[in-house]
Amino acid sequence: MKKTKNEAEFKLLCDWCTEKEPRLASVISEYDYPPFWHRDPNFATLVLTILEQQVSLASAKAAYLKLLDRIEDVTPKNLLKLSDQELRECYFSRQKIQYTRILATEIVEGRLDLQQINQLDEQHIREKLIHLKGIGNWTVDMYVLMSLHFSDIFPPGDLATIKAVYELNLVPTEASKEQIVEYMKRFSPYRSVATYILWHAYIEKRKLTLE
Question: What is the chain's pLDDT, residue by residue, as a tens digit (211 residues)?
C-alpha cells in the first residue's frame, strides 16, 4: 500500500476524492482542505490512541496531558515507573492502565520494536500490534492513518467517520456499516484521504480539535 508523501500531494488527492464524490466538495468549500494531520509513530501516540478508545477527544486529551505533566516524557520506562494509583490520578481507567502497561512492557522487554514495525507494510504492522491486549483494529487504523500515512485506510470502527458519512448524505439513512464500507471502496486506493475529509466535516461542524 502506498503512503501519502506530503501536504501538497494530500491536497491533490482531496481534489481526486471530490471528483469521485462531488458531495465531498461541499466540505472543502465550506471549511477549506482538511489539515494533513500527523502524529509521531511512537509509543506516546499509541498511548494517546488507547486513551481515545470509546471516549471523547477532550477526555482523552485531559488524561494524556495529566500523564505528560506527571512524567514529562511519555516513554515505556517512564510509564512503568508509575503505580496504578498514580495512573488513576491521570484519569486512566482500570482497563487502560492494563493496556498501556502491556504495551510498555512489550517494548521494554524487547518483544516489540516500534521503529522496526514502522518499516513494515500495513498488513504486517496490523498483525504485529493486534495481538496485544487493548489494541484492536480501530487503534491500528488510527496509527497507520495518522502516523504512517498509508493511503488506503478506512476505519469502519470510527464512529465520527460513520456519522459524517450519514450527515453528508453519502448513503441512505438506513444503510448499514457494511454498506458504508462498500460505498467507501470507490475512493480506493485513497480511502485515507476521503476519511480525512469526513473527519474534517465532523470536527468543524462541532468545533472540535483533533491533536
Answer: 999 999 999 999 999 999 999 999 999 999 999 999 999 999 999 999 999 999 998 999 999 999 999 999 999 999 999 999 999 999 999 999 999 999 999 999 999 999 999 999 999 999 999 999 999 999 999 999 999 999 999 999 999 999 999 999 999 999 999 999 999 999 999 999 999 999 999 999 999 887 7
CA–CA separation, 104 and 116 (whole Å):
16
Reference 30, options 210, 176, 209, 203; nearest CA is 203
CA distances from 6 to 34, 88, 93, 198 (A): 13, 38, 36, 19
d(CA 140, CA 34) in angstroms, rounded, equals 21
C-alpha cell at 148: 504512517
Contacts with 178 (C-beta within 8 Å, 6 or more apart), sequence order: none
The span from the CA of 66 to the CA of 68, in Å, is 5
Residues 6 or more apart whose Cβ sits within 8 Å of residue 180: 156, 162, 165, 171
Q: Confirm if 38 and 147 have CB atoms less than 8 A apart.
A: yes
* Distance from C-alpha of 18 to C-alpha of 25, rounded to nearest angstrom: 5
Q: Side chain identity at 145, as an amino acid letter?
A: L
Helix (H, G, I), strand (E, B) or coil at 122: helix
Torsions phi, psi for 4 (to 5 deg) = -80, 125
Question: Which among 131, 184, 143 has a CA at the least distance from the CA of 38?
Answer: 143
